[in-house]
């Protein structure tokens, strides 16, 4: 049975995502991607135009932040909007560990591809900043510095990414996406003095 073009493209993207996360972008060859995908080595150039464009296509297909506009109703309310962002970032990073790892690698190492990553990630954090700013104007959030509030939200939302470094300090069970999201969100909203947060 022959593979259709969309099937083969997706196999290449899944293979590249897996290998980029495991070996890094620089440590992964086009040949390795094609071997993992069971594809002819010429297909990366044919379908995507090279390895760099494969990375871009991975974000186009798998990064959930590109769907922000589908949630405009949430963003009319700062608490709901910020809550959605925090929940979805945590769920994404715990469910799609491969793409989450790629983002972390490219950003921490400030690679030539970091600009591509930023172009996808930045709109999500810009929306979080907007929610914080709007929430303060409406008297829903209480903080002194917008920049510091955003850094706090980012730090709390991404803290679980450092679990490898602090594993001995934590309980042995794995982090569950929904539970982690709810605990983190509770912590953030309480710190911001959001309505309904426990004192």
Q: In a nutshell, what does this entry contain?
A:
The chain has 199 residues and is mainly alpha-helical. It is 68% helix and 0% strand. The protein has helices at residues 5-23, 30-37, 43-48, 51-62, 72-75, 78-95, 97-108, 114-137, 146-158, 163-166, 177-191.
Name the features:
199 residues, mainly alpha, elongated
Describe this structure in words.
The mean pLDDT is 92. The protein has helices spanning 5-23, 30-37, 43-48, 51-62, 72-75, 78-95, 97-108, 114-137, 146-158, 163-166, 177-191. α1 packs across α4 (51-62) and α9 (146-158) packs antiparallel against α11 (177-191). The longest helix is centred in the middle third of the chain and has 24 residues, at 114-137. It contains eleven helices and no strands. 27% of the residues are buried. The protein is elongated. Keywords: DNA-binding. InterPro entries: DNA-bd_HTH_TetR-type_CS, Homeodomain-like_sf, HTH-type_TetR-like_transc_reg, HTH_TetR, Tet_transcr_reg_TetR-rel_C_sf. This is TetR family transcriptional regulator.
